[in-house]
Amino acid sequence: MTDTSPISLPAIAILGAGSMGRAILSGLLAPTVDVSGGIRVTNRSAVRAAEFAEVDAVTAWATDDDPEANRRAVAGASIVLVAVKPPMVPALLDEIADALEPGAIVVSVAAGVTVATFEQRLPEAVAVLRSMPNTPAIVGSAVTGLSAGTRSTAEQLALVTRVFETVGEVVVVPEDKLDALSTISGSGPAYVFFLIEQLTAVAVEKGFTAEEAAVLVNGTFLGASQLLAASTSTPSELRRQVTSPNGTTERAIAVLQDGGVDELFARATDAALARARELAAG
């Protein structure tokens, strides 16, 4: 969470307690968050559902054991987060449509599944929003893109924003920008990890052990990120502070620029965007 101010939320259901669903749940269970009416969670496995048995604020059901699990979870819930895998979404929406409370807010957490898909399958009295959180939600450092639907209000958007603020920062954008956002913040952690992989391999090639390389590279990325977060300077300004004229870093940056890194990132994100649109089109 980025703020320690108390957050009060109504009853919430999370359909699909996979990694992202659980990450959001961890934010909702923070000491500064009060979810009146409790949190309802569903997943397939009874073993996974049993993991919540000792969590007072959570009621969990397994769909393998209880065919009505999803409908039980949404009954009385003011906010419903749909966090199942994208191909499962249409059938799930058909399953819960008539069990939702009038005025409930249903939020897509499924990559590539549009507001239109939700609104076509859910009653008019149900509001829909679409979200794109990223995996740092697991450690409370997410960046979540959030888009309103055609029948959601400003108050409902603000309420769902507070939900995702329990696991990090929220950027509200029109839905037509959400796929592009997914290529930056959604896929972004993978780009960072890929760069770490590559620099670690280079360190090993230069004679460091794998353990030493991990300390050098992981620590450098973490330190640089923390410096950026703590600084009022832009990334460009911070880079220039490290890059002495005619020094070693300047020579390295020149090689990266000559190699077309800027164009490479543009091509990579364009490819991700094209795939996101393919997924959205079904």
TrEMBL record:
Binding-site residues for NADP(+), renumbered to this chain: 15-20, 83-86
rRNA-binding is among the record's keywords: no
Entry's EC annotation: 1.5.1.2
One annotated GO molecular function: pyrroline-5-carboxylate reductase activity
Protein name: Pyrroline-5-carboxylate reductase
Role this protein plays: Catalyzes the reduction of 1-pyrroline-5-carboxylate (PCA) to L-proline.
Family: Belongs to the pyrroline-5-carboxylate reductase family.
Keyword hit for Phosphoprotein: no
Annotated compartments: Cytoplasm
Domain called Pyrroline-5-carboxylate reductase dimerisation: residue spans: 175-279
Residue ranges annotated for the Pyrroline-5-carboxylate reductase catalytic N-terminal domain, each copy included: 12-112
Residues annotated as binding NADPH: 70
Keywords (A to Z) from UniProt: Amino-acid biosynthesis, Cytoplasm, NADP, Oxidoreductase, Proline biosynthesis
Database matches in HAMAP family: P5C_reductase (MF_01925)
Pathway(s) where this gene product acts: Amino-acid biosynthesis; L-proline biosynthesis; L-proline from L-glutamate 5-semialdehyde: step 1/1
GO terms for biological process, alphabetical: L-proline biosynthetic process
Residues annotated as transmembrane: none
Superkingdom of this protein's organism: Bacteria
InterPro entries: 6-PGluconate_DH-like_C_sf, NAD(P)-bd_dom_sf, P5C_Rdtase_cat_N, P5CR-like_CS, P5CR_dimer, Pyrroline-COOH_reductase
Pfam families assigned to the protein according to its UniProt record, in alphabetical order: F420_oxidored, P5CR_dimer
A GO term from the CC aspect: cytoplasm
Entries under Gene3D superfamilies matching the protein: NAD(P)-binding Rossmann-like Domain (3.40.50.720), ProC C-terminal domain-like (1.10.3730.10)
Catalytic activity: L-proline + NAD(+) = (S)-1-pyrroline-5-carboxylate + NADH + 2 H(+); L-proline + NADP(+) = (S)-1-pyrroline-5-carboxylate + NADPH + 2 H(+)
PANTHER family found in the cross-reference section: PYRROLINE-5-CARBOXYLATE REDUCTASE, PYRROLINE-5-CARBOXYLATE REDUCTASE 3
